[in-house]
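U., I forgot to send this yesterday:
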Amino acid sequence: MIKLSASSMDSYRKCPRKYYYRYIDKPDIEIPEWPHLEFGTTAHRVLELFHEYLMKNVVEPRRWPKLMRACFKKAIDESKEREKFELIKEELPYLRKIIQDYLNVMKRDGLPPVIHNELDFEIMVGDYLVRGFIDRIDRLEPGHYRIVDYKTNKNPDYLTETQLAIYALALQEKYDDIKRFSGAYVLLKHESEMREFDLGPAVLERTRQKILDTGRDINTETEWEKKPTFLCNWCDYKSICQDSWAQDSW
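Result:
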């Protein structure tokens, strides 16, 4: 059975060869350690801890900074336990800044109505198992749910509705009172600006079809074409792929 996620679908569309290496061939090579990935993991963890506590406890707004400091420290300690801290050590001031920016937005706009953090899911779409994790789910009002994904990329121009819509398809199977979905990316490196999408029925149906089309294409793929771009410089498989652009070694 082909297993899909928002990231694996994106990987296949951008570069089938990368998809092949990561999900099928799985070559025995040393995977580079990328600082930006640990940076993102740690930022996500801070916010997960923060909202997890606030879902279970009443904390006055004036005490949010103290709570955020404690969550920040725990996330950093976990990075050290994973022996990844050196990857982000030089970026700690910037990490503190983007977390403070997030806190500033919350002070301005109020506590979001969070009902879930890091919710994992698995659903069947046609013959394909689709799975993933949702960073945050807000219930804005009865029947209206907002799916939130945190982004630590500097360039938000590539963002589309697809990832959020995949998550919405999953939530359709979890909640029976759904009347409306909204989706939002929180751009942590842009002062936590929120980029919102309306996830109506047409969007969800288009996304469902995209899943089916991608699964079909992967299932019938034989060439696994490589599509070189500047992003190859940060690809896990550059060492076995990039040098053979001019002549396929297969």
